[in-house]
Specification:
By secondary structure, this protein is mainly alpha-helical. The protein is built from 10 helices and 5 strands; from the N terminus they run ααααβββααββαααα.
């Protein structure tokens, strides 16, 4: 780390490779490595967009990509949580989204933004037509967990288990070789958001997670309790959520700069 100035992740990757080599390949105990400096990942403040920058970014995106990005910002979901949404996880009556098996395999509830409710209803009508055509052609199945599939063999074909944002075509699932319609590709979404940020002339390093950071920061700016924001984000500890107080226009303790007196 000190001699070659490598990143913490690079050193940790090399260490994990050594452990794997000895345990899995050589079948020998690694033993003591001696004294060495363990790399620590530096703490960085999250990139946050202003409300105007969010609107400019969303204004560039189109179709599924615009809706997914809007929901990420409006609900605080992670990208993988957004693309894995199932029909049954959207509650239009209560205006909420149930996030299943988020980080740490935990479920949580967050809000469904009013701005996207009608748009999402119309989108699901179109998705249902796709599902019906798939069923008519002998497909229409999505992936569900093995234990659930054994208990309910036909659940994967039912409407409420379908992905809210399905892939454009059916593909072979490498896990079992079955032909299914997967969810929208998260890599495609990442590329679309990065490109949209450049087109919107936003001078920041923007990705899908930036929308989640912006969601949290803007809620705190609006005066919402940090514990509420913690629950919406699904953070285990409030200390994780506290990082957003450092990127507010005014720090969490409300100190005024002496230059402004």
């Amino acid at each position: 780390v000190e001699k070659r100035n490598v990143a913490a992740a690079t050193q940790n990757q090399a260490l994990n490779a050594l452990v794997f080599l000895y345990e899995q390949v050589l079948s020998q105990p690694l033993g003591e490595l001696g004294e060495y400096l363990r790399a620590k990942k530096p703490k960085k403040l999250p990139t946050v967009l202003s409300r105007d920058e969010v609107e400019r970014l969303l204004g560039v995106l189109r179709g599924h990509q615009a809706m997914i990005a809007g929901l990420l910002y409006g609900s605080g979901m992670r990208l993988i949580e957004g693309v894995r949404l199932r029909v049954k996880d959207i509650d239009f009556e209560l205006n909420q989204i149930v996030v299943r098996e988020g980080k740490g395999k935990k479920d949580r509830v967050t809000m469904l933004p009013d701005r996207y409710a009608l748009m999402l209803r119309e989108h699901l009508d179109a998705v249902r037509q796709i599902h019906r055509k798939d069923l008519a052609n002998g497909f229409g199945e999505v992936y569900i967990g093995p234990s659930l599939a054994r208990k309910y063999p036909h659940a994967g074909r039912q409407w409420h288990w379908q992905y809210v944002f399905p892939a454009s075509r059916i593909s072979v699932d490498p896990r079992d070789g079955r032909s299914r319609r997967h969810h929208f590709d998260e890599r495609t979404m990442q590329k679309a958001v990065s490109l949209a940020a450049r087109q919107a002339l936003i001078p920041k390093q923007v990705n899908c997670h930036t929308l989640r950071h912006s969601f949290a920061t803007h809620l705190l700016e609006s005066g919402y309790d940090i514990r509420t924001v913690q629950e919406l984000l699904g953070h285990k500890n409030v200390s994780t959520t506290m990082i957003y107080t450092h990127v507010l226009n005014r720090p969490g303790i409300g100190v005024m700069s002496p230059a402004d007196r």
